[in-house]
Design brief:
The chain has two helices and 31 strands. With 398 residues, it is an all-beta fold. It has a six-stranded mixed sheet with strand order 12-11-16-15-14-13, with no helix packed on it. A four-stranded antiparallel sheet has the order 1-2-3-6, with no helix packed on it. The protein is globular and about 75 Å long. About 9% of the residues have low confidence.
């Protein structure tokens, strides 16, 4: 058994539903909510390949993972008349309220210790974890980060600290300031060959991460926009497009790439606006981008062949896509209005198989309460990882 794949499967029993929680009130008639296995504030969901197996990794201070294909299995039963019947049964634990979901396992932190996992990213062969040591502030009583460290693993070995290389190619040491913002991000592409990872360090330097080595890139400008080759220190997201990595100062950036097809359209969210550009135009020219629909503040994007899913300040939103993958209008799909609603921010969303539609792909999203629980009726029980499975046709806590 590998280090990363050491597991501790603990499913929680279904708890009582508070009549004060309007989310539960609305959803009660649609689908019974499962207890969350992966709950809390989740900063990232990334694709990563170990050997030939494809996984999703998520963080909530700890590390969680699941085989991206483990959502259903064929089960054959013998009926009373002696005939057999084969059905698709979604993987689950019998204590869960619905026969869907599950299969998330806790990953090993060997080599990291008790440090809090802040963010994950992955390149073609290596998984990265930005961690923070938490200590209680004597003045405020709150936990604060006193030390940050960047680790890496191949998914089969204990975690190690990355090796640092300066812009001239020489070995160096780097201390990540605990009180300054450092952004770990990656292309997160469906195709393994198109996965690249980066660290924007304290808005001062950008490092390319590859096979456990962090190499400083020479660009240090702070201009915002879309760049290729050398990013600026304002960049916090990236995507593989037109045989290159493009960087953006906007938090959400994605393409219409699938596991079998290279991308033909790239998208990013700026504030509440969704922009897109086709492959025949140069993305570094701002005037080549087309402004599409306006939503709410966009934090994350996920592509499917039928819809673009946007994680926003006011819940999860679906936007139609035409035959050329051009964004159209906002539509209501499934039970998002009563689950991943305007009471919650959705900082992450990912489609397991972007070559499927928004109703035939497994999809995962995360939620954090937006606003006061007193004024909205939102529940901290709903903070964490959510899933949509085609066989269920509804969103539920994962």
């Amino acid at each position: 058994m590998t280090y990363i794949t050491k597991i501790a499967l603990v499913f929680l029993a279904v708890t009582s539903i508070s009549c004060r929680d309007v989310i539960f009130d609305t959803v009660r008639g649609e689908v019974e909510l499962d207890d969350a296995k992966v709950s809390g504030d989740i900063n990232s969901i990334v694709r990563f390949t170990i050997d030939s197996d494809e996984y999703l990794f998520a963080d909530n201070g700890r590390i969680w993972f699941k085989d991206i294909t483990q959502t259903s299995e064929e089960v054959t039963t013998t009926l009373e008349d002696g005939t057999t019947e084969t059905k698709t049964v979604f993987t689950n634990n019998p204590t869960q309220a619905s026969p869907y979901g599950g299969k998330w396992q806790e990953g090993s932190k060997e080599g990291i210790g008790d440090a809090h996992i802040i963010h994950l990213a992955a390149d073609q062969n290596t998984l990265y974890a930005l961690t923070g040591v938490l200590e209680k502030d004597s003045d405020t009583g709150y936990n604060v980060v006193t030390k940050k460290t960047l680790y890496y693993s191949d998914g089969k070995s204990p975690w190690q600290e990355v090796k640092w290389v300066d812009a001239e190619g020489g070995s160096t040491s780097v201390t990540i300031a605990p009180k300054l913002t450092s952004q770990l991000y990656c292309t997160n592409a469906p195709q393994k060959a198109h996965r690249f990872a980066y660290l924007t360090l304290e808005s001062a330097f950008v490092y390319e991460l590859k096979d456990g080595v962090a190499t400083q890139m020479k660009g240090t400008g702070s201009d915002t926009g879309v760049y290729t080759g050398t990013p600026t220190t304002a960049c916090v997201s990236c995507a593989w497009f037109k045989d290159a990595v493009y960087f953006s100062s906007y938090s959400a950036m994605i393409t219409d790439e699938t596991k079998d097809l290279d991308p033909s359209v790239m998208y990013y969210g700026s504030g509440s606006d969704l922009y897109y550009i086709k492959k025949d135009k140069e993305p570094t020219e701002a005037t080549n981008w087309t402004k599409g629909i306006s939503l709410s503040t966009i934090y994350a994007l996920a592509y499917t062949t039928s819809h673009m899913l946007a994680g926003t300040k006011e819940g999860l939103m679906y936007v139609t896509l035409d035959a050329d993958d051009v964004p159209g209008t906002k539509v209501s799909v499934s039970n998002t209005s009563s689950t991943l609603s305007s009471y919650y921010r959705v900082p992450n969303v990912i489609a397991a198989d972007p070559s499927d539609t928004a109703t035939t792909s497994d999809i995962y999203a995360t939620s954090v309460i937006y606003g006061s629980t007193t004024s909205t009726g939102a529940s901290v029980k709903n903070e964490g990882l959510w899933s949509y499975y085609p066989g269920r046709g509804k969103w539920n806590r994962e």
